[in-house]
Structures are given as C-alpha cells and as structure tokens.
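Cross-check.
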Amino acid sequence: MDHFQYRNRALFCEDVPLAEIAAKYGTPTFVYSEATLVHHLSEIQTAFAPAKPIICYSIKANGNLSIARLMGQHGAGFDVTSGGEFHRALRAGPVGAKIVFAGVGKSDAEIRAALDNHVYLFDVESEEELHIIGKIAQEVGRKAAVALRVNPDLPPKTHAKTDTSVKGVKFGLDIETVLEVAAGVVGHPGLEVVGLHMHLGSPILKVEPYEQGCAKALQLIAALRKQGHPISVLNMGGGFGIHYRQQEALPASAFAKVILPAVAEAKCQLVLEPGRFIVGNAGILLSKVVFNKETGGKRYIIQDAAMNDLIRPTLYDSFHRIWPVHPGDEMPECPADFEAAIPGTLVQDVVGPVCESGDYLAKQRNLPAMNRGDLLATFSAGAYGMSMSSNYNARCRAAEVLVTGGTYRLIRRRETYQDLVACEEDCLK
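Predicted model, tokenized:
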C-alpha cells in the first residue's frame, strides 16, 4: 500500500496536496511518504518475525540520510555496497546498527574502514576478495566475519541488467566452486566464514526463485559446516517486487512462507536486505509541463523531469504510472489500468529536456491533453530515482521532500549552479 491518494480531483501525499509542495519547492521534486516507508518496513518485520530477522535497509535504493535515519529509528540495519554508502549508514545511525557490506569491487581502503567501524558482515563475491579481506583483517588485528555470496544459477526471473543469479554475471561465487573456495580458508587466522549469502536479483514478482534458492542454500550450509565453518547466518538478500503497473507485487508474507522454513531447518540467523520493497512505492517524482509538441505523427509532453532524474525507463525499459496531479473533470482521478485506452485521452510520450532521444519517462501513454505549467506525478519513483540521478547536461539534481501526516519538510535541497562547479573551481588555473 501507499499513501498517495486523490481527493476532490487533487493528488495528496498523506494529508498534503502535492501542488502545495510544488509551489514551495519547485519541480522536479521527489516526494516521499513517511507512513508508507514505515508501513513497508513493518510489513517485512511482521512477516519474518518468527525468525527474529536482521533487516538491513538497502542504501543503494535510496540513501537519503533522513530516510535512512527513519529506517534505523524503526529497527533496521543497513546494506551497503561502497564506502560512500557505508558513510551514509554511519551518519544515519543509530550507533551500533548492523551493517552488511556487499559489492564485487571493495577497495582496500573500504575494507579497512569497514573493519574499523565494526562491520557486521562482509558479503564476499570472489575468491581473491576473500583472501584480501583476510589479509587486511590480520594487518589490523581483527578477524573478519564473512558470508560467501553464491550464485545459485537459477533461471532468468527479472530484467537482464538486474538479474544477479544467472550463470555468467559478475556476482557471487559459482555454485560449482564455492565449496572448493571455502575449503581453502578453513582455519584462516583473519577470516571467519559464518554465513551464506544469496541475492537473486530485483524486482522479483514470484516466490519460486526464493524457494529454489533456499533449497540450494540448505545443501551448501550443510557442506560448509562439514568443512568446519561455523555457519550461523543465512542472508537471502532482497529483491521483492513492488507495484509499478497495477497491484502486481506479492506481500512480504508470501516470500516469508517459503524462506522461513529454510531458516528454521538451517538453524541460522536470517538477514534480509530490502530496499525497493520499502521505498519504491513510498515516493513519487513531481514535475511540471514545459511545452507540448506534435511532430512526425507523435505527440509529446515535454516536462521538467528528465532521464537524469529518473533513468529507469531509459535504462531498463521500466514502466512507471504517470498521471496529472489535477486531472480534468472528465478524467478518472486515478485509472484502474494505466495501459488501457481511456476515453478523452491522447497517446503521448512523456519526455524531458535532456539532449538524448532516450530521454523519456513514458512512451505511447494514454494521457489527457496537458497545458504549460500543469503538474504530473510519476509514481513508484522512490527507489533508484534520486540514487541513480546525475548532472548530465549540467542539470541540477532535484529536491527531496518527506511528508509526515499533514506536515512536510525538505530533506535534500535542490542543487544550484554553484554546486555543479564546486569541485572544479579550486582546480582552475
């Protein structure tokens, strides 16, 4: 569920009209619902409660400090994939929150910093990385707790660019060789192999991949323990799908139904790394129509949000629902099916100002005629929107606003032209 609803033909986030936010902070702006964020975290906590899980919010989905801090205040730890994300997790707090460090290319400096800051667990992606972590841990007088990330070689299950558990991707240790790698570090003075990690990709809309992954995990855990590794953690990653088109996503309880039995059988501490599931439907991208254009037999709505603000449609051919903040009297407040023909609409592309033909948020979409200055809402933009945004075309990145009931506050100011050149001016000759 989310807390974006139309009331009297105006879109609200919780109890705040989005037009009010646009008037105060301008556009494009990402707007987040605190109630939705907390609800989705709570849904996972409740669904997996029998396992007393460690839920590590995935910073890569949306690392805004205020959002991360909110997650920490409600009991989450953090999943990070870089030193920068680790820094965000530490700044967000609370002190002592469990941090799991994933990613295929951790630098020596990042590994040292993580050890210095009491990282809970490294998700290890390659044999060489495993030995480097062990070496650095010895140098700093620590023993690193690691989970071996295994690629279970499952059938394709999501977009090819975000499917991380099929053969031939860069992620994880091959399931055929992981035991051989693990055998080489039994008794290592700088390492303690305490866990097994599987992240299957994202977004996943079926439970079968988790069921298949858990079955393979149980076999590997038994074999690793037989080698002498004290396996006590099963990290099943994240990847649970969300509502992009309609109501296609499964509840957290559906995934818990297939994961919890494996956790109980393995007698392990469950770790989960959700990001999109928590923040995806909790955010919208608010934009304003700049121009309308008709050319080559096509109609275009040119608005001020672009691929540099939300790159998912360009990068993944992703579908996001888009609808006016104030639909006309003859339009539905919120269509039941955004892909169906809607009486009175026109087939239009929603594009931005960036100088690329790939700069679009929607293609061939049934939308009302729009006027210059009208507001649009692009839904399900809370995950991988701001975190993947850029300054391409020297565009200033958007503002971010968090709504709590009837109040709202800026949680990231809009960038300025001065921000664009701040890292370069000191280097001018």
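The longest helix spans residues 208-227. Residues 15 and 406 are 5 Å apart (CA to CA). Passed to J.P. for a second look.
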